[in-house]
Amino acid sequence: MKLVMAKEPLALEELYDRYAKLVYSFAMKSMKDEQAAREIVQLVFTRLWTTERGYDASKGGFVNWIITITRNMTIDYIRKNRKQQAVVRYEPKDWEQSLISGDEGPESVVSRKWMGEQIQQAYVHLSTNQIELIELMYWEGYSLSEIATQKNEPVGTIKSRLHQCLKILRKHLTALREG
Amino acid sequence: MKEQEPIDCGFIMNYLTGESTEWERAAFERHLRTCAVCREELGELQTVWHTLPFQMEEMEVPPDLKEQVMKAVTKTPKPKRRRPHRWMYGAAAVIVLGILVGAWWSYSAAPANQAAGQLLNKPAQLVKTYELKAADSSMPQASGTAWVVQQGDVHNVVVNLSGLQTTQGDWTYQVWLNHNGKKYNCGTLRVNEKGSGVLSYDVHVKELNIDSIGVTLEPDPNGSQPRGKKVLGST
Questions:
Q1: Predicted pLDDT of residue A90
Q2: B73 near A CB under 8 A
């Protein structure tokens, strides 16, 4: 990553080779549109290119960081299309600081696939409503208060529902707990 | 900085989902230091949060995309670093003054406070400079400069204004930090008979994002949102 900071096209290319698939797949899952996903990939890598603060792809947490950036950019993109106001969303510039949990994040395709299977199995324990809530919030970029308005419920209720969903998932991500 | 609701355990979902301003984040991080329940819960929730994206199916990237992205990206210039100018010496003097005032303030507000001691051995680093230009026809001579200085976990905003009219009664000038369409109170000041004034304001966050800085003329120093007219702005 130091090379990317020094504006070295080769290093950027390396990053692209390693992470483009992740960024593209995320954007496709969210947007379900190839053209939009392509634009998001470009936005994310431009962001990596122009970032003022350094980060190091070899350190743990980089995957989580790039996903956070991708999610923020995807959501901004969706919201612009929906002509919704941008949500104030924290951009973790100082990526090491932003990772309190100390999760390493899955670097390899194999470990990502394994994590995918884990989460898929945990999803079985969620109700349709709970899955819908995560879809709206995580993938479609609606804010907590927008979901509250949609569902005609107080924000606090939505927050505790989401909290509940994540707790159920956590409970069933047993392999992650042990690992 | 005015906060709409108290930042406590109830803020954990906003923090997790990133739906928060930097001020709210900083406040919640302060809360985390003293709340073991939230610390543990947040760790658990983050584990799940970081797993959610892998529910996606990994897809092959269109082969032509790489060239398109590489071309577009490398054409984008990196943000330039500012070079020091002569006025920076003046700026440095104002900043030193600001830091001394800040240090004195935190020292006298909390004697034997560790934070004050820690601040003194952290070098101040100039992060950004904003040129403020007149924004109202009644004070065309108004001008100013604002500096954002980082010192450890604290950002210090130092504002130096001139060419402003002297205020009467409760009337005062107020500085605002604008970010993502929101305005954050950065303190109030009055100018001397020559129309000059200086303000130093500490923001206790590690990261401070500012889109622009504005100065308004307010009927009193108690507002949390601008009511009066804008007299200076950085954009």
A1: 60
A2: yes
Pair (A138, A104) in one structural domain = yes
pLDDT tens column, A154-176? 999 999 999 999 999 999 987 66
Same domain (yes/no): A145, A103: yes
Contact status, residue A53 vs residue A65, Cβ threshold 8 Å: no
Q: DSSP assignment, residue B5?
A: S
Pick the closest to residue B16 from B67, B57, B50, B65 (CA basis).
B50
The answer to whether A159 contacts B61, with C-beta atoms less than 8 Å apart, is no
Of the given ranges (A26-30, A116-120, B32-36, B221-225), which has the lowest mean pLDDT? B221-225
CA nearest to A95 within chain B: B207
Number of domains in chain A: 2
User: How would residue A58 be classed by pLDDT, with cut points 50, 70 and 90?
Assistant: low
B86 confidence band (pLDDT: 50, 70, 90): low
Whether the CB of B211 is below 8 Å from some CB of chain A: the reply is: no
According to DSSP, residue A137 is labeled: I
Q: With an 8 Å Cβ cutoff, is B63 touching chain A?
A: no
Last residue of a domain, one of A61, A86, A111: A86
How close A24 comes to chain B (CA, Å)?
Answer: 6
- List of E strands, chain A: none
Q: Which of A7, A26, A49, A120 to mutate to test the interface with B (most CBs of B within 10 A)?
A: A49
Nearest to B182 by CA among B212, B158, B206, B157: B212
Angstrom distance (rounded) from CA B103 to CA B108 = 8
CA angle B17, B18, B21 (to 5 degrees): 145
DSSP B55: G
How far apart CA A105 and CA B74 sit, in angstroms, is 28
pLDDT level of residue A179 (50, 70, 90 thresholds): very low
